[in-house]
Write a structure and sequence with these properties.
This protein is α+β, with helices and mostly antiparallel strands. The protein has helices at residues 17-23, 43-59, 92-103, 120-137, 247-254, 261-264, 268-273, 299-311, 314-331, 385-395, 402-405, 410-425; strands at 10-12, 30-32, 68-72, 75-76, 108-112, 145-151, 165-173, 176-181, 204-208, 213-216, 221-225, 232-240, 351-354, 361-364, 368-373, 376-381, 400-401, 429-432. It has two domains: 10-240, Jelly Rolls (Sandwich); 315-434, Alpha-Beta Complex (Outer Surface Protein A, domain 3), CATH 3.90.930. The longest helix has 18 residues, at 120-137. It starts with 9 loop residues before the first strand and ends with a strand.
Length: 434
Amino acid sequence: MTQSPAPDLHVRESLDWAAFVRDDWDRRPVLFKGVAPGRPFALDEVFRSALAATRRSRRRLPGEPDNSLVTLDRLQQLDPSPWMPRLEDGSMLGYRQRMLGTLGERRYALVISAFHSYRFALWRSERAFFAPLWRHAGLPITGAITTLFHGNYESTPVGVHRDRFATFMIPVEGRKRMRFWTAKPWADAVSTLPDYRGHLAGSFVVEAEPGDVLYWPADYYHVGESIGGGVTTSVNLGVPRTEHRPVYELEDLLVDIGQADALIDPSAQLLRALMRDDVPVSARDAVDADGVLADALPLALAQAWRLTAQLTAPRALAARIGALSLQRLSAGGFEPVPPRRRTRALPPAQRIALTSGERVLQRRDRDGWQFAINGHGLRVQGDATAERALLARLHDGETARVGELLRGTAAHRSAVVALLDWLDQCHGLRRLRD
């Protein structure tokens, strides 16, 4: 395909986030050249996260939205699971060899949404990498999105498009070309353009390789392209910048954050988390013989009204806002967060400490205390004396044996056990060797 120079491109050779936000943020594309080898996405962790996404895709119920998309020669596969990474592939290299060996000359694309939400190691690395940017640009209120792109596809399956996100593309494997337009290159009333061969003259291209970070503002039309038919793996981070809808925050006030479904189907949480499954969707006798609407609401609407009234009562809403704020801050801009891990036994002799670099956020509400770490929340009724004392020790860098922490009354032991289990489930606890 035709290549043109990149008149608006700014090349930086260091991750100077302060200078970037001052000079480039929302203004022009930037290629950070060779600044992040192996960061924040290591290839082996990308493979493990893709496996976790595959497991979720296979567990979904009929009719549920899928987080994964596979195309073969631009044809989207209704069941992507046969074409997704498998444990026996062993690595992204093994997956690539299986796909190329099976498909021959056919091209393929694997796209996984909410990619940071499947494994804690990848999520934590991404959060740490972009935390300095948020200090200058501000924390994304509704969370940044992360998407994996892998394959030897000729161009991005969706075609030329514009997002509501400013984007950071991070090549992990192979060279990746992005083609840009500063304005919409077509006049038709369509939002994407898969066949853009007639609009190459008004575009410019930028190539990036592992170690680079490529940024472009939300108002640039763009498409990813293969270079010589080679297989590439890259991860895109999208930061919401335009077309923001208040409903995104309103939904968070009604249901818990942390479900990947919310990024695929924004109504999924509201539809499934609160409403009873057995409520009839039809209304009998809603209108009488004279065409007069009945005084009573149909059952489904009445239940929705009651739920909304309960959740928006002043005290309940204030508590929810406080809890959500702590969770959002501790998530560091990346939601939904990875799920909690299973509870593991903590023997009395086990020596523990807080996970390096972590801190439990705390807030007092009207009737108790709220805590958050790694995007997960905990509420304790009352003064939370035992919990706050233990966290103070851990925040000071102390280590302790579980048995020592459990000395005290039955109520004290119960509080400490619950807190330690929660911290461990949320990846906030280190188990130290003697």
